[in-house]
Amino acid sequence: EIIGPLPMLYFSFLVLAPLCLVIGFQFALGCRVYNQIIKKAPKAIGRVYIYDAIGDMSGGIIFTFLLVYLLHSFHCALLIGSLNLLAALLLSIFRYSSPVTRHPSRKIFIPIFLLLALSIYLFGSSKIDNLQYQSTRWRWRGYQLVEEKNSIYGNLVTTKRNDQYSFYENGLLSFTTSDREFNEYVTHLTMLEHPRPKKVLLIGGGVSGGLQEILKHNPDSVDYVELDPELIRLAKKYLPSSDRKALEDRRVKVHYLDGRLFVKRAKEKYDLVMVNLPDPCTARLNRCYTREFFKEIKDILKDDGIVSLGISSKEAYLGEEMGDFNASIYYTLKDIFPNIVALPGEYLLLFASSSAKVLTYDDEVLNKRFSERKIKTDFLTPYHISYQFTPRKISYLLGALDEAKGTKKNFDFQPISYYYDIVLWASYFHPASRKLFVSFTKLNVWHFASILAIFVFLLIFLSKKSPKIRRSFTPLAIATTGFAGITLAIVLILAFQVLYGYLYSRIGLIVALFMVGLTAGALLMIRQLPKVKRNLLV
Fold first, then answer.
1. Residue-wise pLDDT tens digits, 263-314
2. pTM metric for this prediction
3. What are the DSSP E strand ranges found in 104-263?
4. How far apart, in whole angstroms, are the C-alpha atoms of residue 392 and residue 321?
5. Closest C-alpha to 489, from 475, 503, 469
6. Distance (Å, rounded) from C-alpha 515 to C-alpha 525?
7. Which distant-in-sequence residues (6+ apart) come within 8 Å of 123 by Cβ?
8. For residue 195, what is the DSSP state?
């Protein structure tokens, strides 16, 4: 099910708002309670901030290195709920508002105690596992839920419809079984472009049937790279026997590693590199469609080597949004590889090489190789190959890409193809929003810097005439510091994805390290408070 940006926005708000409301309330309440204990308001606020940051830091570390391996979502929620109930129970026992109320009230103590006991019971029972299963089943209604599993790289779900199994990672479709027509089309058209594809690197998509089709061309070796070993183990349960045999073939070596990292570390040279990944619809996937990545692939290709990749497209008509998306990746690839063959369709295939002698649009040459290699297929025929290389279709595609030549190229730290994909996705729901999104692409950091400089200048100028404006400087400084902090956190998270790829289990560690800095800063500031107070008095 595809939802638009607005439903995603307000559903995220509805989910997070109650939690954030409670956390904000607890922080303010903590400052009030702790102030009554130590009777020093500035230190109370600083220490509550430190304790809060230590809790965030501890939670991030424990989740990253322990909970993500052992517990599912409902277990984690119940664990956090139990800790909150325990804190409430302790506060009900040791109340410091006045000596008269030191003893806990039964009206407060007994309900909290019973809720805590119930939470501990549910945590250790099978009912919480059943609740997790029913929740997953409800989310995947309309499909037959076969299995759900968590790994350090994401949430894996297997569904079934008729005889076809589909495998999802973090809600995105990774592959389906029994999709022979698509696998034959992509794999054989790619393999036929090279006259002798003996050493092949496949990044993603091997368990969906592509690996079996590659082996029909009789390569000497195939390095298959897949990030998550759990995905392979899960798929082996439901794959046809022919696909399982392909994984166990002596010529195939499976590497459980990030594809980008494998390419960077590779010492061998390849005849063919197939990037078989979904569209760059996330920061993690976008990093496999950037200029930097294509340059890294070029370094591991032989002189007549080929790289291939595919993205969503349209065969009959490329609209502005689809044209920008396709052109961005096409011209990014062309920046590194001067020779490109582009095949139009609902799935745009791009083949690129540094050599001008290896790639061809000649269907007769490809059909001759198809015949010589004695490829047995269920769907792909010489007629289909000739149809895909129809000059009229190719001429229209190249013309449409030429019209969109002004689109920006995709870089690691300027992930514009990721943005174009978001624009394309938004256009399905709000076509009129295109102008707004396009205007964003024309902005740069100097626009924001200029607006900010004008605002600061006006503020300083007006403050000389108004004491009220001068008094607003302190809360304004606090607000801008908070804004800068959360913005930096988001930038660091995106940068981490660009450099390392997967983020699923590491987000807790990033938050923990962020909180280490906040804790250290708060401790240093508390020690400096007496000096600050003296300076203010002076």
1. 999 999 999 999 999 899 888 889 999 999 999 999 999 999 999 999 999 8
2. 0.82
3. 144-151, 154-161, 164-169, 172-176, 199-203, 221-226, 252-256
4. 22
5. 503
6. 15
7. 75, 78, 79, 82
8. S
